[in-house]
Amino acid sequence: MIEINLLPGAKRSKKGGSAPSINFAAIGAAISAKVKDKWLAAAVLSGAAAIAAISLLFLSQRNHETNLRVAETKAAADSAKYAVVLLDRVRAEARLDSVLIQLNIIRAIDEDRYIWPHVMEEVSRALPIYTWLRSVAWFGTAQGTNPASAIKPPPPDTGKVKRRRPAGVVIPRDTVHLRIIGRTVDIQALTRFMRSLEDSPFISDVQLQRSEIQIETGKEITQFVLDAMFNRPDTTFLRRAPFTVTQR
Question: Model confidence at 246, in pLDDT bands (50, 70, 90)?
């Protein structure tokens, strides 16, 4: 069998079952021999490479744009859903603040209803023998100057989502100053009276403003003036008892 080598300079392939090898150098040399203008060929190859690169970049950017549009659509849907949730939360918190203010107002009014019963009970319990009182009253700023009912409720909901503000509801409380005027025939009884008042959870800051000796029915007595403050103790000190009236 006669074999003819059509590519001069190429090596002859070995006989056998192995795949034939391609000589790219020979192919390039053959193409170079046929192409007369090498600059034109370089320009054509550069243009083809540029078109391929531009096509690849266009497809890549188009794919990226498609992904961004899908993400934008999903983000817009999530934003609308969460905006409704946040708006409902703000409205619920506004209602909660309003309810808390009302409960605190009711609690403040309820706690201040029994100021004077507590005062009278503590004073009568601390009053020693041979001592009697002329008056128990308040002095200074009158009660009701800062009523709890004057607290303004939270502003109405305008439909806009706002940042949550901590609910710090401060109920104004009147400072109740007490003035106790009494008389005693024993100066030590006055000291015991002041100590007993100080031990009360409802009364504090007991101070002796003045005391003077007076003559009444031929006997010496000591008239005194005490100033004190009413305390609002913890609810553990409060004791509630049923009020009953016996009818005859």
Answer: low
